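FW: tagging you since you asked about this chain on Friday. Here's the raw sequence from the shared folder, copied in full. Didn't touch anything.
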Amino acid sequence: MNSDGRESESIASEEDFHQEHDSAGVYGTESAGPGSTTSESASASKDEVKEIQRLIGRETRVVQRLRFVVIFAMLLVAAAVTTATFIFLANEEDSDFENSFDLYASTIIESSQFSASAIRGNCNDFAAYVTSTALLMGAEWPFVTLADFEIRASNLRQQTNAIGVIIAPTVEETQSKEWTSYVLQNGGWLGETLFNAFSPYIFFFGPPTEEGGSNVQLGGPTPYSPVWQMDPLPSYPIVNFNLESYEEGKKVSQLAFELGEGAVTNILENNDLSGVFPAVTSSSSSADEPHSTFTAPIYDILDKATRKPVALVHVFLRWNIYFSNKLPEDVRGIDLVLENTCGTTVTWELVGKDAIYKGRGDLHDEKYDSHRVTSSFDFYDDLELASDLGACLYTIHLYPSSALEDEYKTNMPAILTVLVGCVFLFMIVAFVAYDGFQKKRNTKVVVNAARSNQLLTSLFPNNIRDRLLEPDDSKKARNSKSPFLNNNKGQLRSFLDGDYEDRREPERPIADLFLGTTIMFADVTGFTAWSSEREPSQVFMLLETLFSALDVLAKKRRVFKVETVGDCYVAVAGLPEPRADHAVVMARFARDSLHTVQDLVKRLESSLGPDTGELGVRIGLHSGVVTAGVLRGDRARFQLFGDTVNTTARIESTGERNRIHTSKETAELLTKGGKGHWLRPRNHLVQAKGKGELETFWLEINDRNGPVSTTSGSDGTDIWGDAEVTDNKTDRLIDWQVDVFTRLLKQVVARRNVVKESSSLRNVAEEVLLWEAKKGTTPLSEVKEIITLPEFDASASRVEEDPENIDLGDDVMQQLRSFISTLALMYRKNGFHNFEHACHVTMSVTKLLSRIVMPSDLNYAEGSSVSSAERQSDSGSNDTNLKRNIASTLHDHTYGINSDPLTHLSLVFSALIHDVDHTGVPNATLIKENNALASMYNQKSVAEQNSIDLAWQLLEESQFQDLRKCICATEPEYIRFRQLVVQAVLATDIADKELKKLRDDRWNSAFSQVLREEKPIDTVNRKATIVIEHLIQASDVAHTMQHWHVYRKWNECFFRECYQAFQEGRADTDPSLNWYKGEVAFFDFYIIPLAKKLKRCGVFGVSSDEYLNYALKNRQEWQDRGQEVVEEMKNALLSEEPEGSEPSAMTTITEVFTDES
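HL: got it, structure written out here
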């Protein structure tokens, strides 16, 4: 928090008032009323006991008088309630039984009517389809064979739950020979076995022979109606069977022709043609159950006025199918009686999802006749005409059975009636026992009430105590007489306890004046600059961790937390309950807070990254008078007012990092409390805004027992587990790098588990690596115009395992830590190009990767492939498709960078290794000095190529075999990983004008021109490649696009490195001579254009705006103060400069851009 933010005289608390109630209670134990004496307390206690005894005695006598009346009334009520309970519950069971049956019956009837309608409609539609198909084929009946009959008939069976479908054309006697030839020519649809067995002639079954065998005869009644196409294929040859010889078939055919629509036969059992179908013959019971046939006429044309019947479609129905699956699995006992006007009646019992055939006739239980539910099973549009023509009209009757009733009839009415009676009996006994214990209870109540009253007297003044205990009516009356009495500590305490209810008029505030308080402001130093390098979640993780720890301390020290303002923690001692030692308590709390913050920031560095351990806290204490009260409104808050608050803010802002700064007033109170040895006067007076010069002190408490622990649980165990806090910053940075790489490796493994590479696997850990075969070449020769990233895999985005559940194994984790530790040792102790700066670059890379545009940032109205219909869909499958489309859109929007974990890992790896073994001088100096590395790498990107080779050689060592296999387990992964690392590291060479121009040209070709004659995927990968290069470049100089303090820190580090080279004789000129102009040119010609490119590519969301804004602000700040800063840096170094240094030649990056300007 900046000091400018503390002009307000009010500090508001958002602390939970129940927690403050606990603190207030603890305060009270140390602040008994000072004016009371032992004799006065004893006398008051006796009077209070007598009064309470008098009140209780009067109420007890009233209870005794009413006892017998109540007992008698309870007996009458018990008898009435038990009787009513039994009757009510029994009626409820009957009602549940009837309602359930009605519900089931309604469901069965609705389903049955729908089935009848489906049979009628689908069969008539099928007949019309056959007519249409024959017309389209140009075929003449009866010589018609449908090519797609099997498919169409199968669909019809599924729609009607039929067991078989047959088409029987009408064949005149004169057409029989021609029909026989047609059948022989077109019977191939039967299959070889049935084709060889069937009769090519129309036949029928005559009366059985004397031996009881089948009597097959040719011909039969004319016109013939031979069975032709059928589905499914029959169990035995039935093709050419003349249905006109089948009595029931002949009757229903004639009825169908007369009605002009489908008709249904009577109920049949085992003497019809349904037995030829596999669905019946495969079940021993199915053949014995009732069946019927629905027959629909087929006409030569669709015109109803002139059409003639030419064939029939017979659909074979098994009745039990239409009555199955109508009830839940656990419901049993409904009888279904099916009867028709042809005199046939059959009965089924519906048990769960099964329909069990009971036999012919009405077999239901007659005692349930009153529950009968009846409905027609309508197969005909015109029921009256169908009835006149002799059609069988079907009716369904439904009856419950005893099995269904037994499910609802229980012993519960009787059981509950007994329980109710027992409850009343128990109440009566308890009431009598209560009267017996009443006197003893009253005695205990009197004693406890007296003690409670004594405790309130010791905690509060008498007027506050009386106000807490008085009834609401008395409070209202008193408030109406004297509104000024509302301003009291009792109300304030009620508000902080969370018990306060605002029943007052708005003009009556809750506030009070506290004469003795000590306020603490604790501000996290370096927070603003630190937060500019982090993503929002990390900022809140830091503040929540620190402030939660201080909350624990506040409770232990009985300090009242007022609020947090930004990164500033505000607390006060001495209210809501006054205490004389408020200054001492706050001093100890400040000491504990300082130690706690110092400890936690070091612990957090392993998860929040570089410089977290460098954060500190600046604490200011001041004592004085404050006005405390509650500002009511939408967000009622407890607040402090007064000059003491402002002075505390000034004391804190003029303090120093990791020190406790106290005012003279607080120091005097500490001295008065015997703690003067904690204080050390400050060497000079402090100039405080609006206060003039102030005499202040440093608070230095040497506690041999150490600070109060804030990181232990209730059982004393450390909540940080086995984590160790080390003062070695490099070790903390290594821990953080291991944490970053662990998360990325888990993401890579999770993706690898669901994505199968198309090329063959190659064990990178054991076989000769591809790079080994390229010895004699340099990394610069591997730079690609386009790096191909994986295409979007929708299935992977849907089924990928949560990376947090991935176990990398102990070997990989040990090798990862060893690898990063070795890399840290390979960094030289330069001022700028060192391991700490590599960690800073890594942190910037991870921040930019985390800020890559997420699905919520996409504008669906522009450039989105997701349609509005998909977005509005509420189905599960469409919702899954929508998420997949969003992931695909995100992949395209970020050119594939967002959806490839290996790309993320490659960039972070590049940031870690990009300055390994950097010599502290630029490439131009190495080339000028004829360094061996310059010759090895052909005078190009010397330091960068050397870093790649050294890091790669380290990774290839046998001790990192498991780590290599975890990074890239296949040859395509290895190739992509190597290409990305080389491309990214070499992109950090921004001083080589030729390479910079090539990258600028690639940018222009990707984002400024419309490429022609190039595949769209190549265009996307081209953009991805150039964005990756600019991402690592921006991260390498991220300090210039972060807070001014961060920029100043690393700018000074780089200046020191360059000046050290000058001192060592490796530079011709003093870098301070051109440093100011060089930085201005560096901003104008590189940093600001780079930030604008990040914004233009549209990949990094709001981070691109953040980087550009910081770059512009830092450039302006440098222009205003840069010369002064350069002078300060030079003077600081001159005081450290060794004697006898000789200059040599060196060119800095800032000089390159000075020349360009």
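FW: The CA atoms of residues 71 and 730 lie 82 Å apart.
HL: agreed, and The first strand starts at residue 11 and ends at 13.
FW: great, closing this out.
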